[in-house]
């Protein structure tokens, strides 16, 4: 009786919306404060999500979660790390990802508030000239400006928010990322911009063509008449341009991590992951902590052989989105992949839910049962 009251009808929709509020709030507060309790809240929210999605998912989705749990447990034991939190996130984040996928209407208000708080707080800090590495968040760097901005915008885009709200937040998030000074964030968001242009051009070919010609003519005129003036202004105004102009897209520490892991590749690491039997010295080379600054190195370290299955799903998802004409979402997927390749964002943390949700959105026939497919139609 209790399960029927809270997992069906109007009560379920209200509780699902509350789960979204708790999850987004905990993510923002964790980035701001660094308190581990907010990570625990996201684990609990992910676990509760199961009760609102299990009726709609195919056994393939259950098999994915079971394999994630098995391989995450195995690798954390043989690497002598004993990170129980990694195992819990491996199990619970796919559940919350399915919640994002199936409850788009309930997602709308929490996602809009999440994106507004992120852009307003980070935008205020940028305008006021705060030190984005020390004053914005108590325990996180400027890199998390883009993490919060990109993921909150993604939630708004997949929700049932009005198009004008999506467009306004899209512009605001882009401006925040542009002025955040993060090279990887700026480059990764270019995928979103490019594929948004592709999708817009498909729907409004004539308008897009005229707009493109107008912009091109204006750009050529500006470059011919005022190139040095414009470049100097951009160079002095945007720290991301100055950092890109320095020559390298990354630092030597991250290169040393990649080289170290490459040198240690062997048949054992293919099956057991990169850090088997406490063989994780490479991840400390970037900044002295266990942080290889690459989510896919962390994926390989945490899942071993099964990491290739996850990579396969990501590639399959990308092709499915492109073939279905969902170019905007394909841009977000590439943005997630590129951003994850420059920092530890995924595998295993609460941010995993967004990557899994794109996989579910792109492959509904594989992950949803009959009831789930029917729910998508309503």
From TrEMBL:
<feature type="transmembrane region" description="Helical">
    <location>
        <begin position="109"/>
        <end position="132"/>
    </location>
</feature>
<dbReference type="GO" id="GO:0016020">
    <property type="term" value="C:membrane"/>
</dbReference>
<keyword id="KW-0472">Membrane</keyword>
<dbReference type="InterPro" id="IPR007016">
    <property type="entry name" value="O-antigen_ligase-rel_domated"/>
</dbReference>
<feature type="transmembrane region" description="Helical">
    <location>
        <begin position="208"/>
        <end position="227"/>
    </location>
</feature>
<feature type="transmembrane region" description="Helical">
    <location>
        <begin position="327"/>
        <end position="347"/>
    </location>
</feature>
<feature type="transmembrane region" description="Helical">
    <location>
        <begin position="144"/>
        <end position="161"/>
    </location>
</feature>
<keyword id="KW-1133">Transmembrane helix</keyword>
<feature type="domain" description="O-antigen ligase-related">
    <location>
        <begin position="169"/>
        <end position="311"/>
    </location>
</feature>
<feature type="transmembrane region" description="Helical">
    <location>
        <begin position="353"/>
        <end position="370"/>
    </location>
</feature>
<keyword id="KW-0812">Transmembrane</keyword>
<feature type="transmembrane region" description="Helical">
    <location>
        <begin position="21"/>
        <end position="54"/>
    </location>
</feature>
<feature type="transmembrane region" description="Helical">
    <location>
        <begin position="87"/>
        <end position="103"/>
    </location>
</feature>
<dbReference type="Pfam" id="PF04932">
    <property type="entry name" value="Wzy_C"/>
</dbReference>
<feature type="transmembrane region" description="Helical">
    <location>
        <begin position="60"/>
        <end position="80"/>
    </location>
</feature>
<protein>
    <submittedName>
        <fullName>Predicted O-antigen polymerase</fullName>
    </submittedName>
</protein>
<feature type="transmembrane region" description="Helical">
    <location>
        <begin position="167"/>
        <end position="196"/>
    </location>
</feature>
<feature type="transmembrane region" description="Helical">
    <location>
        <begin position="299"/>
        <end position="320"/>
    </location>
</feature>
